[in-house]
Structure formats: structure tokens, C-alpha cells
Amino acid sequence: MKQLRDSSIRTKLNLFGTVTAGIALCLACVTFVISDVSAAKAAMVKHLITLADILGSNCIAALTFDDSNAAKDVLASLQFEPTILAASVYDHKGQQFSSYETSTSASILPQSETDAKEGSVFESDGTLKIIVIIRDNNAEIGVVVLKASMAPINARFRQQILTAVAVLIVSIVLSFLFSSFLQKFVSVPIMNLAQTAEQISQNRDFSIRVEKVADDEIGSLYTAFNRMLERIEVGEADLKRSYDELELRVQRRTQQLSEANDILSHEVAERKRAEAELRELQSQHLDAARRAGMAEIATSVLHNVGNVLNSVNISASMIRDKLKKSGTADFRAATELLSQHLDDLGAFVSTDSRGKHLAKFLIQLCQKMTSDELQIVEETKSLSNSIDHIKGIVSVQQSYAGSGGFIEELPLSSLVEDAIRINSQSLNRHNIEVIREFEDLPLICTDKQKVLQILVNLVSNAKNAVIEANHSNGQMKVRVLRTNADHVRIEVIDNGVGIPSENLTRVFSHGFTTRKDGHGFGLHSAANLAREMNGTLTVHSEGLGKGATFALELMSELKQ
């Protein structure tokens, strides 16, 4: 197929014409041969059926009088039919009554023929079998069976095939000759056009034209080809002029680019200097954010310590007041009165009006001093607990101070508890319920100081949001869970004032805050710290009055 596709158009036209004519002739010859052979077979069947009818009519008397010799004489007339190989006459019982056979066809018909059906059958051995029923007054009295050779038909078929092949060969040769003669009216103009196109392609000479030789479709192609050459020639001239102009513009542009390159080099140097300054400012900003985060923790610590100290001051004042009003002076006056009357104590108690009330006074004084003592003990316990709470807050602050950048193994839940503990005094004072949902996680490797700085900020923001919402049932939920094999997630969920949708993308921006006393460093610093630890800090809120959820997700290797 590839060779045919790459052949010349002359070869293709010759081949197409010859093949088309050959196919048409083949179909015609095959149709003619089949039609002729079919007609010959039909004529032979018709002739043999007629012959069998004649033989049957002649054998009626022989069958009626059971004279087989007469029937044999009738069948003997078949010797003048060279195609008949054998013939038999059967009686009404299907038994062979008489037969005719040539020397080469002995016993090719059976001795009995039952259930015979009238008609013709072409047998597989190349013979034709004719069956005709013999009737006398519409009564079936016997059957005539002829067996004929198909040799004449086969010979006729072979002769027709040879004739068709000869005609086909002669026709194909003539078709090829005529096709070879006629194809030049198509192929020669096309080949001339192809040669001209090749010459133009090699020499790029668009002034060449092809000469039109006819007004047919090829002539139209020649005209269109010449017009195309004219347009190309004009286009080449325009292209050459444009090329010259472009070259001049390129030279000018090159000079401008050279000048611009010098300016750009200067700008690049300036940009590098600006980038260095920007990196320095970013470093300073990051350091300021870290200090702001630490200040946030320190502020929370000092705030909670201040709240506890307030309780300590109240307890100390109450103890001082109780001690002032404890009745020690009255007890001292009573003992001095008793010491003055030690010699006549009995008479003093029984006769003196002061002595009579002294015992009752001492009993009441003892009861009052006992009650005051219990209150002082309770206040002392409260004072001791407040001092212990201050020690705990300071201890937590000291444990995280200066530990930034150090990776260590630690339980994540303890970090969360420390963040809650730092804010616990304020949480308790505002009756904010803290719900803990901690999964049982193994130790993680992380920067303790950075994580605490983020968590303190999140807990403090959630607390402030709940306080600002002024809920009667203020609530904060802290959840710790594992999201996949190497990620953990800490969520701080509150039912506070919520965040409007337009602020969700700004809460982590530097300096952004909605609180009057806020500075906008906390969440920005927390987001930067999360990124430093290859983590993320995200926020979600359904809107104002619907609370908010801050989620810190850390990528940290879990230690089993």
C-alpha cells in the first residue's frame, strides 16, 4: 500500500483504470457464465422431465398387464439419449418392474423406490436424478426414475470459463492501452505543475509561470497557481522591505536594551540592597514578635499573680482585723483584775459586782476567741493556697523561660494544662468552664516554649472573647487529637463573640486587633511560630455571636 501511495500519478491512473475495467469485466463474465450454466441446467431438467413423462405414458399398458418385457422395450429407446446413464420403472408397490442401464452404470439405481417424490435432484456424484409418477385415470400405478450425466453441462461450463478468461485478458490489455493513452491528458499537466513547483522551491524564483493548456479543472488549477505565485512574489517583496525595516529597528532596540541593561543592573544592585534591608527588618520584626509573645505570657503570668496577690492582701487584712478585734485586750484587763484580788478571790467573786460578772465574761470571751481562731485558721489556709498558686504560676513561667529552639520529648497534654493554669485565676474569676477532651497520645518531639507561647495566646483570646460576650454560661473547650500518623491537632473552641467573615483572613495579620487594649502581636506571632515548626494555625467562625475555633496542627514525630 505504501508503494502504491508513493507511485507517480501516471502509474496510479493506469492502475486505477485497468483495475476498474478488470473488475467490471470479471463481474460481467461471472454473471454471464453463471446465467448460461443455469439456463443449460434448467433446459436439461425440462427435457428429461418431458422424456420421463413420455416413457411413463408408454409404460402404462405394460404395468397394467404386468408385462415387464414391454416396459423394457420402452426403456430401450433411451439408447439414443447419450446423457442417460440408467432408468427404472417401479410398480405401485415401489418394486423395480423394469430397468435400463448402460455398460458403465450397472446397478446405480436401487431395486425398490418407496416414498418417491416427483421432481429433479442434483446428486453429489455429479448426476441428475429425475422422478416422474405414472398415473392412469388419476391413479398412481408406478414411478419412472432417470439418472442422467452432467458431463455436457460441465463441459459447457469449462468452455464458458475459458471463453470468459480469454475475453477478460484481451479486455484488460486493451483497457491498459487505452488508459495509458488517455492518462496523459491528466497526468502530464499535473506533472508539469509539480515540476514547476519544485523548480520554484529550489530557486525561490516566484517570477516563473505555468502555461495553461486547457480550460478544464486542471486549467483552473494552473490559473489559481499563477495567481498564488503573483501574490507570493508581492509578499516576498513586502517581506524583504519589512525585513530591512525590522533589522534597522532591531539595531535601534538593541541599543535601547543595552542602555536599559545598564539601568537594570543599577536597579538590581539597589534591589539587592533593599532585600538585605528587608531581611534585616523581617528578622527584627520576628524577634519583636517573639518578644511580644513572651511578653504576652509574662503579662498573663503577672496578671494572674496580681489576682492571687489581691486574694492574699484580702486574707491578710482579714487576719489583721480579726487579730485587732480578737478580745486580747479584754482578756488582759480580766487577768489584771483577777491578779488584784488573788488574796480575796472568793469574796471578790461573790460580793463584788465586777467579780460576779467576771466568769460569764470569760466564758463569752473564750467563745469569741475560739470563733476568731477558726476564721483566722481558714484565712491562713487560703493565704497559704494563694501563695502556693503564685509559686506554681512562677514555676511554670521559669520552666519555659529561655527554652526556645530546643526540641525535646514531652506530653502534649501537659503543655495544654500549663497554658490553662497560667490563665486559670482569670478563668475562675469570670466563671468560665473549661472542658478538656484529650486523646491518649504518646510523647511528641517539639519546641516546648514555642508551643506554650501559642497556646497561652489562644487560651487568653478565647477567655477575652467569652468575657466580652457576657455569657451566663461562658465555656471554653480544649481538644487534643491525632489527625494522622505524624500530625497532632490542638483546638481551642469558645462560645464568645465570634469573628465576622470579613475578618477571618485578617486575624493573623500584624497589628490587626478588635480589642481596645490589644496590640495585634499575639496571633501574628503565634502564626509565625507555627510556621517555624512546620505547622499551621487556622481559625473558623460562623459569624458574630457564634464563637470561634482556633486550631494548631503540628507535624511532629510521635514517640511510642
Describe this structure in words.
It is elongated and about 195 Å long. The longest helix is centred in the middle third of the chain and has 108 residues, at 217-324. The chain has three domains: 2-181, Beta-Lactamase (2-Layer Sandwich); 325-395; 405-559, Histidine kinase-like ATPase, C-terminal domain (Heat Shock Protein 90, 2-Layer Sandwich), CATH 3.30.565.10. It is of the alpha+beta class and 560 residues long. Strand 9 and strand 10 (487-494) form a beta hairpin. The chain has helices spanning 2-5, 9-58, 60-64, 68-75, 151-182, 184-203, 217-324, 328-340, 345-351, 353-400, 412-422, 424-429, 448-469, 522-532; strands at residues 84-91, 96-101, 119-122, 127-136, 139-149, 407-410, 433-438, 443-447, 475-484, 487-494, 536-540, 548-555, 558-559. The strands form three sheets. It has a five-stranded antiparallel beta sheet with strand order 2-1-5-4-3.
Kindly list the characteristics that best describe this protein.
Beta-Lactamase, 62% helix, Heat Shock Protein 90, alpha+beta, 16% strand, 14 helices, five-stranded antiparallel β-sheet, 13 strands, 3 domains, five-stranded mixed β-sheet, 560 residues
Could you give the topology of this structure?
Layout lengths: L1 H4 L3 H50 L1 H5 L3 H8 L8 E8 L4 E6 L17 E4 L4 E10 L2 E11 L1 H32 L1 H20 L13 H108 L3 H13 L4 H7 L1 H48 L6 E4 L1 H11 L1 H6 L3 E6 L4 E5 H22 L5 E10 L2 E8 L27 H11 L3 E5 L7 E8 L2 E2 L1
Parallel strand pairs: 7-9
Antiparallel strand pairs: 1-2, 1-5, 3-4, 4-5, 6-8, 8-13, 9-10, 10-12, 11-12
Helix pairs in contact: 2-5, 7-10, 7-13, 7-14, 8-10, 9-10, 11-13, 13-14
